[in-house]
Write a structure and sequence with these properties.
2 copies of one chain form a homodimer. Chain A is of the alpha/beta class and about 400 residues long. Helices cover about 35% and strands about 15% of the residues of chain A. Chain A is globular, with a radius of gyration of 21 Å. The N and C termini of chain A lie far apart (about 65 Å). At the A-B interface, helix 2, strand 7, helix 3, strand 8 and helix 4 of A face helix 2, strand 7, helix 3, strand 8 and helix 4 of B.
């Protein structure tokens, strides 16, 4: 079993009903597990391999689409560092968010809920919609204005209701959070004060990296939007360290979108409150193709900052041209990542050229989401060159390509 | 080790160089393995679990992106039959073709080739491009005229050269096959006379189904384009039957696109030659969204017909509205399939309503490819309805959705 406690006042709370925060002080909730809970199930190929470390009771029926258990790939790219790709594109809806959502929707069923709702036009929306569909729950997805159809059509296939909030995504996020409270709707947004259960998904990425590598890497490089993914992976290694499995924790590096690098500045300035963090939001933020991570306010930003600081890590920020270039580099390794996820590799490149990552070090880049969901972003940005050929000229064109 | 022999004259050939057909009689080549080759590697999560049954030497360096090892899902959909989904959408480039291509590109490296080429604008192109990228080989993809950009942009990310043949896909296919012979280019088209190694990929789907289910299902329902996928899965169970692992073979059902159902007619008429099959091609075939399987000529069609006939199976054909409806049904189970793959479920539905599949029978539908690669097909065909909401009206809209 597990216990739930408030991160602020340390009070223990129960989860007979869905709680998003401490009933006494409003603090965020976290989970604690028995000491002997690390016993990966040898036969499981999914993240439920770690079910004793996830906040579900053993007798519950899992809502699962076989999430997690993703490959740790080892492409040959740099001569001087030992690079691994944690390939989260292989999840059911193409991203790491499926891990959080398998837990969150399982809990929704446990709590007897019939509807889930969130603000997202990206990976979290796809995951929420797919798992809700699987569980037979009603799914409501709220998006900001002007999201292209290609990003929403899969939600239609999953059977979601799509509401377009007449404002920015950040305004929609706040509105959804407020409406879910007011109407008692189960929120599947993946940040601690919206849904603490979702926070337990990302740590399974860390557990898997440990098992696949047999040790802790020197670095883990993670794209950062709201902050929960980096925090969770960092926490996994804190767990493994506390259990005596690894001698030291990896340095956690967070990759931010250029122009949305408030967490870096906040870390430098020692910012310690959400209000201060929120006040740093650019308004509006610059246009970017890194839509999945470019958030004006990171709801779990303080936790991500702590994970970076406590592991002697750092933040780096990546421009759109750098994100597209990294996407092409990953493509040449046979991995099609979306730009917002390819930034993990751009971050590695940056840390390597800054000599933060040193010769001989082992580095895991977490490639969070698949490019197939975001081919639409490339239209007009990546040239789709096709050379016309026919029976008359074709052989000459090919000979030329082959350099013959 | 394995041996290679001609399916027509039974002569044994070697693979010191790449051969696409029998040097004596031009017949197709097949592989034979030692009797004790069924020894799945317990620690492998990919299709290379069956490496002793794949035509690579043990010492070869595999070109792999962790293909295969896909989930066998068991959604609750029908009350009267035991349905499983073999979820091939979870492969590296989103389809079962990755299995064939991991073998084919591994062999290209073995043969010292520096270029691969094929005609395809679909799953096979993506797989060829990705594995070639991974192996550091040049990739040439030839497409017919007028393929939309969204289908080609991922190939650009993988670094392929795209040639647009000024004709139909069928003409381009013939041209590519001829040019590959003439210029001695390694062809990665997935049919026996183009590349016999590719034929060994689909059988690993069958081996996995057997291991995941612990027995043979009553039916396996497979979308059929060129025919190799159905043939390979059928052959896997023929193997398992010969080895005494299963008491009987599953009935193989092939799902064809309406208007491209020549294999069904050919089976009824007892057609036994490729020339006759080719002569049945509609010219041009009707417009369809099932672009991945709607082929005017099925290069491995005779083999697929034999697999259907020998297992007491059948062919069914599916219209575009039925394919789209099946896509939505799968979506409600949390699986986003492309229309050309969702037809597997449409086929099950048809066989069930025709009472071919009977009460209590176990049925595996092979969902071959992910919808995320084909969201572009849905534009204008699936309505992307979004309801505008704001702070004033939003709660009322949601209350209405909830039926409150």
């Amino acid at each position: 079993m597990y216990t739930i406690r408030c991160r602020s006042c340390r009070q223990t709370v129960t989860d007979e009903t869905f709680r998003t925060s401490c009933p006494s002080c409003g603090g965020g909730l976290e989970f604690a597990y028995p000491d002997a809970a690390w016993k990966p199930e040898a036969n499981s190929r999914t993240m439920w391999r770690y079910k004793d470390l996830l906040p579900v009771r053993p007798h519950e029926l899992l809502v699962t689409l076989s999430e997690g258990g993703t490959p740790l790939d080892r492409p040959v790219l740099y001569p001087d560092i030992d690079l691994y790709i944690k390939d989260e594109t292989r999840n059911p809806t193409g991203s790491h968010k499926d891990r959080a959502m398998s837990i969150a929707v399982t809990k929704a069923v446990t709590f007897g809920r019939d509807t889930v709702m969130l603000e997202s036009d990206g990976s979290t929306a796809l995951a929420s919609a797919a798992y809700a569909a699987r569980a037979g729950l009603r799914s409501i997805v709220v998006v900001g204005r002007g999201v292209p159809d290609y990003r929403l059509l899969p939600l239609v296939v999953y059977g979601s209701h799509i509401l377009e909030y007449q404002g920015t995504p950040a305004q929609a996020l706040d509105w959804v959070h407020e409406v879910c409270r007011k109407l008692d709707i189960y929120e599947t947004s993946t940040f601690r004060l919206a849904n603490p259960y979702t926070m337990e998904g990302p740590k399974t990425i860390g557990y898997e990296i440990y098992e696949q590598l047999g040790r802790a890497p020197d670095w883990i490089v993670v794209p950062v939007g709201g902050g929960a993914t980096l925090e969770g992976i960092g926490r996994a290694f804190a767990d493994l360290h506390a259990w005596g499995k690894v001698g030291r924790r990896p340095r956690m590096a967070g990759v931010l979108t250029r122009g949305y690098d408030m967490l870096n500045e906040a870390l430098q300035r020692g910012i310690a409150s959400d209000d201060e963090l929120r006040a740093m939001a650019p308004d509006p933020g610059p246009e970017t193709i890194q839509v999945k991570i470019a958030m004006t306010y990171a709801p779990d930003g303080l936790e991500a900052m702590a994970a970076v600081r406590d592991s002697a890590g750092c933040f780096v920020s990546v421009s759109d041209p750098e994100a597209l270039a990294a996407q092409q580099v990953l493509g040449k390794l046979g991995i099609y990542a979306e730009p917002s996820s390819a930034v993990a590799l751009a971050g590695v490149e940056k840390l390597r050229s800054m000599k933060h990552i040193r010769e001989g070090e082992s580095v895991v880049a977490v490639v969070t989401g698949s490019g197939f969901r975001e081919t639409g972003t490339l239209a007009g940005r990546v040239q789709c060159q096709r050379t016309p050929v026919d029976a008359a000229c074709g052989v000459a064109v090919i000979d030329n390509l082959l350099g013959r």
